[in-house]
């Protein structure tokens, strides 16, 4: 590709023909890849990210790099370890022996007594010569007569090593290369933690985590689960049926959360992991099949007449005694079959709530469903226990989670031993509340143990999440759930109703509502640049995860109501409450999610303030909740109001970003900020909302605003390569 000349403001342009250029004027050749198609210069974030002086991330030595230190004895191989800071509150940043976050220091010992830390300001790693201003620390393995091979592992190998020399004789991570044969260790990997916390440091993988193909395959089971539960809920538009759905949907969401966390922290995509995913999918299928068999039937005049007739023929005291024991009540009534004029007998078991009855066999169906759910939960508990044995440095955190899972399982087990509806409802509700609180309690307990360990110098090893992976998993999960609404918006044209008609209009509105909901979810908090809730602190991270339970449940209910609204011009039953209530819940959840993110836009740079954007979501939530109070809605009018309101909200949020300028990461000011926090003992990060910089150097493209509507930062950034004749035509569009 030939270079070309391009004049820019402040730069000399090429002289016109016939005009001689002066000797002191040099023609400047502009690299076309420096500027976009509209004349703007590309951000220099790529070059900046390669300079370790402007980022808080540092490389950790690998096994291959570690083996390139021949001057170190085999029994004293050194492993580069990021230093752990132990600044006491109220101490000066420059005080001897206590260094700030900006200039880390080494401590004397770690949790494993066989390893000692040695401060080293003179030795510099060969692979990172730019960080000479930082003091370095190394983890030195004490010599106890072990074989030389047991001391050639990287930091990852040492952290994952067991207490015996036999388990440490080989590197934990098998070497991968195209010219190496596949071994059994490639197919079945040892337990591992992909990223972890130790002291004030996070050790994570350099490459960005992406969901594996089998994670997406696992999500396919939710297509079947959501579809089945949605159809079961659509059979009756009653409040008790909606309550039944909310209770039955939680175990599915709980299992999905367990699997997501496991794959995030310990995913290896090997044979064992894929078999585990297959097992979880089968268990979810078994749970859904049984919980969908639980039916609720409303009392009808036919049923009441049948009950009163049986009472008249029977002995009065005997009938009263029989009705006093609800578990022994069995009545039969007839209902019309949908396919023919014949009738189908339905046996009633016990009265539920509000004039509804459980059909016969409800207790056995609930027991079987909870059994499948418990096996899936105990499976996860077993992994916590097994990983605790296999990874002793992470044992305390893993077994604390195992204890919490055991308590939760203890709440659900009695459900398999009772048939009383009120007791089942109480235990299910208690289990949901306890599981929601579990994450907060475990996080607080880990912080408590960490604080006690820090005072003695034995810092805990705590498994950590890959936030990039989690963010993408949640986005894909919400897309999957919204897909049910799009499926419900499709219809089959009937004879005499082809082309554009009212039913097509309702279907178009249903698709529009689904897309607009996803649009608002993508916009997060309506900012151009923001810090995701998963990154802020433990409260915002856990709350963000929990909000997806009511959000996805409301989206399924909305899909259920859309199917009925599109099929019928007049709204039947309580589907207007389904639709209005679920749409209101969705907007409340989206508003809460927006509040959890941290806005990083420059103060006053946008057309509409962020608080007004978030507040408008709650205003529309109130509007949707009040819609069912108007009793004479038809389907087209109701869907038009909701779609129009969502369209207004999308335009309001999107156009409200006009003029928004995001803050830039500043390494120098970040060091000063953290140094000041250490010196004053400040625990919370407080940012000046009027500043033009932020201290977060690990924001994703979405958080930096590069995935906003119409914003693509690298259009026109080109590269070239030579192709063979056949390859060239394969690329032709």
Write the layout of secondary structure elements.
Blueprint: H1 45-49, H2 63-66, E1 78-81, E2 115-120, E3 136-141, H3 155-160, H4 184-187, E4 196-198, E5 201-203, H5 213-234, H6 239-266, H7 271-291, E6 296-298, H8 301-313, H9 316-324, E7 331-336, E8 343-351, E9 356-359, H10 362-390, H11 395-412, H12 421-456, E10 461-463, H13 467-488, H14 502-522, E11 530-531, H15 533-536, H16 538-567, H17 575-596, E12 598-599, H18 610-626, H19 635-655, E13 664-665, H20 667-680, E14 693-694, H21 725-731
Parallel strand pairs: 13-14
Antiparallel strand pairs: 1-3, 2-3, 4-5, 4-10, 6-9, 7-8, 8-9, 11-12
Helix pairs in contact: 5-6, 5-7, 5-13, 5-16, 6-7, 6-10, 6-16, 7-10, 10-11, 11-12, 12-16, 13-14, 13-16, 14-16, 14-19, 16-17, 17-18, 18-19
